[in-house]
Amino acid sequence: MLDASGLDLLFNKARTPLRWTTRPVEEDLLRQMYDLVRMGPTSGNCSPARLVFITGSNGREKLRPALSAGNINRVMGAPVIAIVAHDPLFFEQLPVLSPGEDLRSWFAADVGLSEETAFRNGTLQGGYMIMAARALGLDVLPVSGFDQSMVEDAFLAEQGWRANFLLCLGYGDFTGLPERAPRLNFDQACRIVQ
Length: 194
Description:
Layout: H1 4-12, E1 19-20, H2 27-37, E2 49-54, H3 57-63, H4 72-76, E3 80-86, H5 94-97, H6 103-108, H7 111-135, E4 139-143, H8 148-156, E5 162-170, E6 172-173, H9 186-189
Antiparallel strand pairs: 1-6, 2-3, 3-5, 4-5
Helix pairs in contact: 2-7
């Protein structure tokens, strides 16, 4: 079990930055982060998440027109902007990822099932990415305010991947950050059924 400092790092004291410092994020840290993300469970070990890391000015300018107006400054100031996507044809990797089971044929024959599985498990892997980034000392800003089609056309069309959300990664500048917003308590959000 994690001690209190580990829980604080991941949850209790972790905050979403509104601004970023200029401290860069090294590529090696992105590789370490992915090595943690890929170890998280997915159904049938399907691992459909695909990630595009935008680190330079050319990529940022390609992304800028797709961002909603309220997100431009927060996103463009991040040292790294990750497109969390999924591969609709993830099942082509299943003979390697789940050897001995014929899972590929299930998904290849059912487009609805494969789309639902790719989206659900890719989103799950995006959540792992938030926790992995925090565990490695990065701050994270998840963003859904963008034009999905524009992002896919600019960054994902060649691979056929589908965009889900953006994750800004870096070291946050927390000066002037307001108090944490309220959260629902257990009784408001949970039910126990016996």
